[in-house]
Specification:
The strands form four sheets. A seven-stranded parallel β-sheet has the order 3-2-1-4-5-6-11, sandwiched between helices. The chain has a two-stranded parallel sheet with strand order 7-10. The mean pLDDT is about 95. About 40% of the residues lie in helices and about 15% in strands. By secondary structure, it is α/β, with parallel strands linked by helices.
Length: about 300
């Protein structure tokens, strides 16, 4: 892993799921600031030795002040709920679209590298799986649309202003602190259902596939993106292996240690059928290699709850 050390760093959304893990990793050898309004993130997730700025990512003055004299910005702040983006597209545009442009523009004035959290949602229903970054973007939700917009602006800022930017397309991220709230997803739902002794609820036939990546691997990708020469273009961050939701349900039952049933309910409208990251470019240009298997990742996620 490339080292990020002795840098002045800003993490937007640093109190959230991915942001807090990233902040903890960076705080060991860097001077870290966190900008978060704590609407979903938690102060308790943060190390004691970081500077916390409570504020709104949509406010240009706040972002500018938080970014003063920093070297690297990790932009994690966002509306992360796809259903919420569908219900509130204007809010999604402000939080995920306009705020990202604000971050990029403030970073341009500081000459600070920006690593952006993007998403596999930019692909929509891909034509081919595994999905390479060259796959045409076809986002199906406001969340995916705004993430793609952020990538396009990042490319523009790199090409026009020479600002180093690296968007990372996260696939399905899970791990400690990610079982509840907006980022929980199907793994969080299954684990909570299994712990409560309830049937695991699968939407549709359960044959849809996903690439589940542990948050530790996502942090590793961010640190690599902070020093790579491959700027102005997106990279997939996943495991390069997919699993069906039916298989996931069985795996969660084994890890939790329960024999609860499985219940199928109607499929979600416009659900993505297949998703799996092609990591060729991430391996070659970032040096990224996922290290956490799904079984080990689920076990560590559950054990972290008892700490």
């Amino acid at each position: 892993m490339n080292d990020v050390s002795n840098c002045r760093v800003l993490v937007t959304g640093g109190g959230g799921f991915v942001g807090s893990h990233l902040t903890s990793a960076l705080a060991v050898e860097n001077h870290v600031r966190v900008l978060d309004n704590f609407s979903t993130g938690r102060r308790a997730n943060l190390p004691e030795d970081v500077t916390v700025i409570e504020g709104d990512i949509r406010d240009t003055e706040t972002v500018s002040e938080a970014m003063d004299d920093v070297d690297i910005v990790f932009h994690e702040a966002a509306m992360v709920s796809v259903p919420e983006s569908i219900e509130q597209p204007v809010d999604c545009h402000e939080l995920n679209g306009s705020a990202t442009v604000t971050v990029l523009d403030c970073a341009r004035r500081q000459d600070a590298r920006v690593v952006l959290a993007s998403s596999a949602a930019v692909y929509g229903n891909p034509d081919t799986v595994p999905i390479r970054e060259a796959e045409p973007a076809d986002p199906r939700t406001p969340y995916g649309i705004e993430k793609h917009l952020g990538e396009q602006y990042a490319q523009f800022y790199t090409e026009r202003y020479g600002l180093p930017t690296v968007p990372l397309r996260y696939f399905n991220v899970y791990g400690p602190r990610g079982l509840d709230g907006e980022y929980a997803g199907v793994i969080g739902t299954f684990i909570r259902q299994a712990q409560a002794g309830n049937p695991l609820t699968i939407e549709g036939d359960g044959e849809q596939t996903r690439d589940f990546v542990h948050v530790d691997d996502v942090v590793r990708a961010n640190l690599l993106a902070a020093t790579t020469d491959a700027i102005g273009r997106p990279f997939n961050v996943g495991t390069g292996r997919s699993i069906s939701i039916n298989e996931l349900a069985e795996t969660v039952r084994d890890v939790v240690g329960t024999d609860v049933g499985i219940k199928h309910v109607p499929e979600r409208t416009d659900d993505i059928k297949e998703s799996e990251a092609d990591l060729s470019d991430a391996r070659t240009l970032l040096g990224y290699e996922p290290t956490v298997s799904l079984e080990k990742g689920l076990e560590s996620t559950l054990s972290a709850e008892g700490e």
